[in-house]
Amino acid sequence: MIQLRTFRAMGTEMELLVDGDAAEGALAAAEQEIHRLEALLSRFRDDSELSRLNRDGSIDAGPDLLRVVSLAFEARARTGGRFDPTVHDALVAAGYDRTFDEVARDGGAGAAPVPAGGGVRLAGSRIELDPGVCIDLGGIGKGYAAERAAELLATAGPCLVNAGGDVATRGGRWPVGVETAEAPLTVELAGGGLATSGRDRRRWRRGGRELHHLIDRRTGAPADTDLLRVTVVACDAVEAEVAAKALFLAGAERAAAEADAGGTPAVLVTDDGRTVWAGGLA
Fold this sequence. Notes:
The protein is an alpha+beta fold and 282 residues long. The protein has one domain: T-fold (Roll). It is 32% helix and 30% strand. It contains 7 helices and 18 strands. The strands form 5 sheets. Strands 1-2-7-8-11-16-17-18 form an 8-stranded antiparallel beta sheet. A 3-stranded antiparallel beta sheet has the order 3-6-5, with helices on one face. Helix 1 (24-41) runs antiparallel to helix 5.
């Protein structure tokens, strides 16, 4: 019997599903793990480990922050900088300076864009950021939390974790809805993960301009792209999150070519209302 638990964390709705009769303990442990990781990785909590790193520039980090920072900078190198955790100050300048629920949906002109850049040094448990660099781990942190929660749920049976669109699965076959330009599509996940990046949900206005949270690191401004939304299926939720964001920032033509070349199943929705199937989807 499939058991479901829902709750709010990391600024979004969380869903835990497990196909097992004695799953209450696993569901509780998975929820607790997501809350624990939020307390470590949120840039909106002054007492989080990430906030201390951004304030101090270096810390002796716990294993989770160390792992997520490592994954984020590896992803930056792998995507040629399209996925970049150093967009923290650009997000703040654009107006995303507090939890999205608290961001004013309309306001006066914001601060000037802040291009991203700068590096990190990892040595043992030590993380050191370049001077002036602050990092944001929002998307990749959700993917990581979904994967950790799925590991705990899997002790009770086949499971799915949906962390606001970042999906991780273990065992079984799970139907997952994907929005296209025409009508919702259902894909079946049998292991692996799925994630969506787009500018149709987290958006606001400043000085009459519509802004969103997906930053072009070169300009420091919300990306100007012909894509509205990208959904990717990958080996896990972290990889799906990275790929979805990188393809979104590439634009429709290049994203489709890259997904096809890499065999990355992707659904691209353009801002003029087209659905592009790529990476083997048809």
